[in-house]
Amino acid sequence: MARSSSASAKKTSVPLLDQVKARDYFPLLCFIIIAAGFILRLYYTHLTPYNVSKHDLGYVTGLGSEKLGSGHLGYIEYIAREMALPNFNPTSRWSFYNPPFFHTCAAIVVGFFHMLGIPDAQAWELTQYLPCVAIFLSVIGVYKILKLFEIKGVPLLIGTTLVSFHPTLSYLSLALNNDAMSFMFTVWAVYFAVCWYREPKKKTIVYLALCIGLGMMTKLTVALIAPPVALLFAVRFFKDKKWLDYIKQFATFLCICVPTGLFWGIRNKWLYDIPLTYVQALPATSGQNVSGFTIAERFGLPALSDFIRLDASWSKPNPDHNIWSQTLRTALFDDNALLWETDRQRLMGQVLMVVTLGLFFLLTALTLWGLISAKKQSPLLRGFIAFACLLLVGNFVKFCDDYPMTCTIHFRYIAPVLLYGGLGLGFWWESTKKKLPARIILAVVALAVLTTCVISTVLYTGCLPVLEVPTK
What we know:
By secondary structure, the protein is an all-alpha fold. Helices cover 66% and strands 0% of the residues.
């Protein structure tokens, strides 16, 4: 009898053990991480004045004033006050050449608060939660893309943590410019492009067209995702041979995407003969001009000491000019956004730079490995991700070469590489045999990501307040 009950216990214990192992707690952990990252960014946005960003923020004169402000704030203020887009050559005011979608959304928000009788300064403070929400939606989009590619377990957790607590997304979440929203539209364009390729529905291609079209109406560089998307369209078109159905879908896509994305550029070309790809450049006499440095100095690896220097140099005789160190610095600390008050804070910042640099090279190698070796993933979708990443980075290098200024060397222009790095890690893990060496590498990546998240969180809540930009 005892032997019989023992055998019965063994039979029932195995299925129960399998059920426990089968439970996947990682999505719940990812949800907690996403929520914690959002709370951190809300807290940072609450602590930080709206007018601290150095990214062409400009100034405002007050919604009741007849004077015209400058930069992104002046652009928003003009739309809120006039309830119309600028009716003059946008190149005559700094940053007014940008497509107007973000500025219009922000103008609606600040105008609404102004209508409620909220003072101007407080209305601007509340409006900076708009990019904070855009970054939150971006992080959700990154998580959904990882799940779409069936990234599971620890790589899913690492990829989600990387974007949820990355310092770039912290400072973009409060900047009243178009960076956060353009990042959001790029992420969701990738998501809907992959969804459409796997199941070409008309509804999905409409969402994709809106993401790219509204993204281009926010910032023209969102168009960089269009060539990789066109690759997916072409392969599906010739592979499935559903000629009429796909022609209708592509026509719908173009009818939504092209007018939405290009109307501002076409309008300015027609009225003021401004090139479609116009970028407002600083004068050659600017202290940020780095054209006098050699190609090796600008694009080659700098001295190791430059990778642990925390404060950026923006003016002559030695402005920051190296693409490697300046991109790393701006990925972590923006442009001198943190106030270094103690030696301990500076040491933490230097450790963060060193760990992030090592993590970058490690993730780059693993991503290349994964893109080549992840046989379970569609070769075309792997090519899509690789093409999108190369196009983004290549355009950034060209941009830095075409406009040789310190301010152009900034990680915010290539922020979507955070998504591609998370995907690459998942692809690599999927393609390994998961033996001890691979597990050690994954543990190193996890520890590095955790270290960067903890240090950046401490710095971004402890190295404040930051210096305010004058508003008048």
